[in-house]
User: Fold this.
Amino acid sequence: MSAAFALEKQVAVSAVLRACQLTSAVFKNLVTKETVTKKDKSPVTVADYAAQAVINTIITAAFPKDPIVGEEDASDLRSPTSDDAALLRERVTTLANDVLTPPPSEEERAEWGLGFGRTTTELLAAIDRGNYAGGRTGRMWALDPIDGTKGFLRGGQYAVCLALLVDSVVQVGVMGCPNLPVDPSNPSGETGCLFVAVRGQGAQQRPFSSFQSTTLRIPPSPSLSDVQFLESVEAAHSSHGFNARVASTLGVTAQPNRMDSQAKYCSLSRGAGNVYLRMPTGQGYREKIWDHASGSLLVEEAGGIVSDSLGRPLDFGLGRTLGENFGVVAAGKDIHSKIIEAIQAVKAEESEKLTSGL
Ligand SMILES: Nc1ncnc2c1ncn2[C@@H]1O[C@H](COP(=O)(O)OS(=O)(=O)O)[C@@H](OP(=O)(O)O)[C@H]1O
Ligand SMILES: [Mg+2]
Ligand SMILES: [Mg+2]
Ligand SMILES: [Mg+2]
Assistant:
């Protein structure tokens, strides 16, 4: 008998690896015209759209009934009158078909929709399969075709992130990080890592270049002064100042490592960094499920704990977002509660200052 979710894992790995081929190819010759600014002022590129088209096409072929909560939608590509939209549609079609048409490898199957191209209409419809509202029950996939689009654009870290949720619990998480070093102790060495976790079956990493998987276990945390925080590059996404105060409360002297995307969860799960702390910057932003689903399972399966800043589990059953934003704290089991306590201490200090008018 095969392990639970074996087929879902294989399909997700195939979809993520093909999408990573696409994003890496795009980075090599991306032009300004291929980037759009969304209504929320965040960037999206032809690579985000085409990667979502590829992954949704594969998931839909393999599991036709499964809904998908995907970050992107095709509305900006559909304008019948805009020349820019026509160019983008054409590029998305070429890019998606470049990675959908190669025939299935030995690890893949034809019934996952591989080995032939799709029309633009089919690919736009595939992107819009990501419009599911989410919710408490049933199966659904959560997809971030490029997490850390700003990192992608600056040649930094980004991740192609796909997760399967059943009754709002993450069961499978697959992430491809094309720019992450295979060996964290050799940052200028080979890059391109695949991270895979299945609930109850552990967390694994392997280089894109081989099938040699390593099991990930978060090592014991170092003494508090040497604990390394992982945090967002963008100060607008997560409060750097609050993190610094938490670190100083704990007596941490090590400098934080700033990195875009769920590569932070990947790094933590392989012991390269000890705490991922993401505190809201106070602008009413709600965290999206696709920004945490696969990463949180990876860390849990590597033996860590993921919660909000009050120590409560993340709730993936509220729709496309995690609801009101109380931040995200991911860390090894031996240190997680200390981080939560330090956060509460800093918050108490802040509210004391406010009430005393300082
Ligand atoms: N205001 C605000 N607050 C918190 N988070 C936000 C905010 N705006 C955007 N986002 C989401 O942040 C995702 C990338 O954040 P990261 O922490 O991974 O990277 S970084 O902040 O860009 O360094 C990024 O993911 P992608 O859009 O997939 O790149 C966004 O979903
Ligand atoms: Mg985005
Ligand atoms: Mg994201
Ligand atoms: Mg994204």
